[in-house]
TrEMBL record:
Organism name: Paenibacillus harenae
InterPro entries: Ester_Hydrolysis_Enzymes (IPR051532), SGNH_hydro (IPR013830), SGNH_hydro_sf (IPR036514)
Name the record gives this protein: Lysophospholipase L1-like esterase
SGNH hydrolase-type esterase domain: residues covered: 48-231
Superkingdom of the organism of origin: Bacteria
Regions that span the bilayer: none
Length: 248
């Protein structure tokens, strides 16, 4: 029997002191991270985000480039907990590039039942920009090139997703949400230009004629891309990165 090697110390963010979607995959990702760090594998791309990232089968779309790509998306995650797990799920894994996509789940707080849990569009906008800026700066300071994806538009028939018990159903804020996400995308583009990161405009290719709402054929639940939506996203990402000489 081969003797076991000594385990590699890793960063473990632990669980949060509140109900957090990020906790659902914490033990899974800790296990993945330890296995990865215990072997001499260079990570090319690390995708961190929410459900839109978790449900994106990256190997289907990008395996032909021969890159080592990992997915650290968590359904229901919000930007504050993305930021808090960033050192564990990105920095310690030392990818060449990190793809950051999120912010949509922050907007569920528009419909929070309890007033002290509710957030205004301005507060959510500020949270998204602040958290993304911090993640971009963390990546840059650790020699990782950040790739920031725009938030996607949503449709008008979003079902009730029980990510947090504070959220009431049905969804009542589709127009406000889409206006907020469009405005935050403008801010994210300016931020990435200033910070020396790469911005990927998925929104422009997924939005309908009104410039705000997701094209209905691209998502079966008005929120998460189906294969047609992911086909577009993959093409946009590949084409946009080629402008920088990056192949995925």
């Amino acid at each position: 029997m081969l003797p076991p090697k000594q385990r590699t110390p890793i960063i473990r963010p632990g669980t949060f002191s509140f109900v957090a979607a990020a906790d659902r995959l914490r033990s899974v990702y800790d296990g993945y991270n330890e296995q990865l760090l215990s072997h001499p594998i260079a990570v090319d791309f690390d995708f961190i985000g929410e459900s839109i990232t978790q449900y994106w089968d990256l190997q289907v779309y990008f395996r032909s480039a021969g890159k080592f790509i990992i997915n650290r998306g968590i359904a229901g995650d919000v930007t504050p907990t993305m930021l808090r797990r960033f050192p564990a799920d990105v920095i310690q894994l030392k990818p060449k590039y990190v793809h950051i996509l999120g912010g949509t789940n922050n907007t569920w707080r528009l419909d929070a039942v309890e007033g002290d849990q509710r957030r205004t569009p301005g507060q959510i906008y500020d949270d998204i920009l602040k958290d993304f800026t911090m993640m971009v700066r963390l990546a840059r300071s650790n020699g990782i090139m950040p790739i920031v994806g725009s938030s996607l538009p949503s449709g008008r028939n979003i079902p009730c997703f029980h990510f947090e018990p504070i959220i009431q159903c049905p969804n009542c804020s589709s127009d406000t949400r889409n206006e907020l996400l469009a405005a935050s995308n403008i801010a994210l583009k300016k931020m990435t230009d200033y910070e020396g990161a790469i911005y990927i405009d998925y929104h422009a290719q997924l939005v309908g004629p009104d410039g705000k709402t997701l094209r209905p054929e691209l998502a079966d639940d008005s929120l998460h891309p189906n294969v047609l939506g992911y086909n577009i996203m993959a093409a946009v990402l590949r084409r946009s990165l080629l402008k920088y000489g990056i192949v995925i």
